[in-house]
Amino acid sequence: MEKVNVAEKLSRIQEPWQPKIVAELNGQHVKLVKLAGPFVWHHHEAEDEMFLVVRGAFRMELRDGSIELGPGEFLVVPRGVEHRPVADGEAEVLLFEPASTLNTGNVRSERTVERPERI
User: Fold this and answer.
1) In this structure, what CATH number is given to the domain that contains residue 62?
2) Residue 16 lies in a domain
């Protein structure tokens, strides 16, 4: 067992949109990521995703509206729902999702991270 200091781990992340694995449990990954600007529209066929804002704020754009999230707030995006996170500034976010989850879901782009680094 290992204690995880979220602030320390986030301080090691320099690039936005590059999720890093910080823990694993029951086939799930706990990841940390910094968001800045818009991401790509995508969905996940088989996985739900949880986004918990640690610092900053972002909005989850959906095809029928958007949801604003601030520190201490989280959102679960159900599988199959098309979404796009957008951060006007920088946001630090904890993700909880199945280990099989690709950050860009059904889309391949320059932002796709095939094998997230563990820090």
Assistant:
1) 2.60.120.10
2) yes
